[in-house]
Amino acid sequence: MDAVAVSLAEGLQLRRPRWRDALLMAGMFGLFQALMPVLGWVLAFWFADEVETVTPWIAFGLLTLIGGKMIWEGLRGDDEDHTTPTVTVRSVLPLAIATSIDAAAVGVTFGVLEVDVVPAVLLIGAVTFVLALAAVFVGSRVGERLGRWAVFLGGGILIAIGVRILLG
């Protein structure tokens, strides 16, 4: 749900998202939501306790920085200067990592519960992809109506998700 909420927040900024942008965003979120449990499953045997205590802080830091940057950019420009953000792997990667890092903890339980990992992560990735893709377009519709305020709302959503992850 974090990835879906971030997709919605990013969609708020995009006046009319291109399919390429929406597919890139949804693909990155789906990929990382699928990969992080695998990483957690692999690393669980080495240092599960350390990973579990640090990941909320990493996610909080990344989402707060990105959300704060969005709000700062919204404060700096006026409606005429506000341009649609460019969606690139570089811009989506920190969001994909921040929203999926807590999924590594899910991977730790895979080993304990003897879950068949491949079907589980394929399902996680596919569901995240579909929901994130829809959220980008829903967010853009709302963003069209909110105008410049969409940037503030999107930044606020990212910071709120970071706080929620931190508080558990």
TrEMBL record:
Signal peptide segment: none
Bilayer-crossing regions: 22-48, 54-72, 92-113, 119-139, 146-167
GO cellular-component term (any): plasma membrane
Membrane topology per record: Multi-pass membrane protein
Pfam families in UniProt: Mntp
InterPro entries to which the protein is assigned, alphabetical: Mntp/YtaF, Put_MntP
Chief location bin: membrane
Keywords: Cell membrane, Ion transport, Manganese, Membrane, Transmembrane, Transmembrane helix, Transport
Superkingdom assignment: Bacteria
Task performed by this protein: Probably functions as a manganese efflux pump.
Protein name: Putative manganese efflux pump MntP
Gene: mntP
